[in-house]
């Protein structure tokens, strides 16, 4: 049986994983779903849009802090210096 987190993961832009790393994306989805009052598979497209919005907010992080931020939260120090808008 599919979990809600899995369904959201399947519908996200592949660029989110490439740029932000699987660990950060997965943790963000788990936290998001954990905060939902009444999670439903009927709202997956809305959840995906919300997750894309959250991911694009990571682009707002100060460029001076980007490398340290990614190393800490994504566990990956080889990320590009940008995050595509579709994330």
Order of helices and strands: HHHHH
Helix count, per DSSP? 5
Secondary structure tally: strands: 0
Integer count of domains: 1
Q: What number is the mean pLDDT?
A: 76
Q: What is the helix fraction of residues, given as a range?
A: 55-70%
- How far apart are the termini? 27 Å
Query: Would you identify the regions where 5 or more consecutive residues have pLDDT less than 50?
Result: none
Give the percentage of residues in beta strands. under 5%
Q: Assign an overall shape.
A: globular
Largest sheet: none
**Structure classification:** mainly alpha
Notes on the protein architecture:
With 87 residues, the chain is mainly α. The protein has one domain. It has five helices and no strands. The chain has helices at 4-11, 14-20, 22-34, 44-57, 66-73. Helix 1 packs across helix 4 (44-57), helix 2 crosses helix 3 (22-34) and helix 3 (22-34) packs across helix 4. The longest helix is centred in the middle third of the chain and has 14 residues, at 44-57.
Topology:
Elements (H helix, E strand, L loop, with lengths): L3 H8 L2 H7 L1 H13 L9 H14 L8 H8 L14
Helix pairs in contact: 1-3, 1-4, 2-3, 3-4
Q: What attributes characterize this protein structure?
A:
single chain; 87 residues; mainly alpha; globular
Entry summary:
This protein has 87 residues and is mainly α. It is built from 5 helices and no strands.
